[in-house]
Amino acid sequence: MEDNGGTANWIASDENAKTMLARIVVNQQSCLAFTRQLPPFHRVPLRAGNVVEIVGPSASAKSELLIQVAVNCILPKEWKGVRYGGSEGVVMLFDLDCRFDILRLSHCLCCRIHGACEHHGPPYSGNSETNNRPNEKLGSQTSSVLVTHLEDEMFRACMERFLYIRCYSSFEFLAALKTIRPQFQKAIEKHSNGVHLLMIDRRPLSLQVIWEVVVQELRHLLQINTMLVLATKPTIYSMTSSEYLANRDGRKWSSKSCEPSKYGNQSLQKAVNREYMPAVWQAFVTHRLLLGKSEEIMDSGSKKVPVYTSEWETPSLRFLDRFIVQDGDISLVT
Q1: CA–CA separation, 158 vs 153, rounded Å?
Q2: 81 pairs with which residues across the strands?
Q3: Contact 289, 52 (CB under 8 A)
Q4: In Å, what is the CA distance from 35 to each residue of 38, 116, 132?
Q5: Helix intervals (H) in 225-278
Q6: Are 60 and 240 a contacting pair, CB within 8 Å?
Q7: How far is the C-alpha of 211 from the C-alpha of 173, rounded, in Å?
Q8: Are 233 and 53 contacting, i.e. CB atoms less than 8 angstroms apart?
Q9: Rounded CA gap, 76 and 89, in Å?
Q10: Closest CA to 146 of 82, 71, 67
Q11: What pTM does this model have?
Q12: Residues 6+ apart with CB under 8 A from 254
């Protein structure tokens, strides 16, 4: 029985081990570059395949963290001579809470693009020979129009790399996971590195058995496309900043201003972050980040912004960071 060389073609290698390892390392490094300079993710070296659970009460900047990470991921590292510092990766978001603010994401993305263009200076020509120097022949009005056009073009290119899926129930989320593989294949074909970041902005699922199937489907997706997974989780009970600080025990602080005046046991903090998730999800999660909202308000430019707190529970770093969320980025409070 002749196979016309089909078997030989199937087993023929198209790359050696050195090429394969170089491709995997480069892809993973570019995939995770968007988290290295962004607090509070800067404290932990995240890798492709990690599953990070972001835990916190309402209004503790969980969704804001997702927005800033997504913006860092979909922005390119450099485009037409302007440096944006992104990874040019694809982001897929499952919105189980149905309250994810797309307009907020668009606003933050526009602020980053506009800030990069302003920092760069005059608009640059798209010609490769003149790409490294300003186009001095452009008038001020023409320059403004060109900058606006370039910003709009960059915005559209970035939003094409953001895939948004809204699920109104646990069963819709499960159905989406089971039917999402064709979109993954399209993303891999269109973008050589595939999906870089999978985010789940969620509420608690209705049935424990659903979590078992969800974890199984997520594992299958990670086998198809190795990526970073970020999942938010609301806490059932939250305490105020003064209660939280009064019940901490001997941890290091990122600034002296947030050091508590007295120490106690950690029983209340453990009760606040008590795990209500099934064991199958706990075994799936590799990192756990605790968020809180401080009572402190800071001046940021022309407006006042709240101060948030973060602490890595897994791995346990015993550091409490304070940060504020701005339109363009997240900044640590020292």
Answers
A1: 9
A2: none
A3: yes
A4: 5, 18, 28
A5: 241-246, 267-272
A6: no
A7: 11
A8: yes
A9: 8
A10: 82
A11: 0.77
A12: 319, 320, 321, 322, 332, 334
The two tokens of residue 179 are 């039917």
Tokens representing 152 are 């709009």
User: What are the residue ranges in the chain where pLDDT is below 70?
Assistant: 1-15, 19-31, 121-146, 192-193, 204-207, 236-276
Q: What is the pLDDT of residues 181-197, one digit of tens each?
A: 888 888 878 876 678 99
Which tokens sit at 248? 């901490």
Per-residue tokens: 300: 């940021």
Whole-angstrom distance between the N-terminal and C-terminal Cα of the chain?
A: 74
Q: Are 173 and 94 spatial neighbours (Cβ–Cβ below 8 Å)?
A: yes
CB 174 within 8 A of CB 214: yes
> What's the pLDDT at 271?
43
Sign of torsion, CA 241 244 247 249? Answer: negative
Rounded to 5°, the CA angle 11-186-199 comes to 115
Residue 236, token pair as written in the block: 């059932």
In SS3 terms, 287-332 reads as EEEEEEEEEEEEEECCEEEEEEEEEEEECCCCEEEEEEECCCCEEE
CB 190 within 8 Å of CB 160? no
Could you tell me the two tokens for 180? Answer: 């999402």
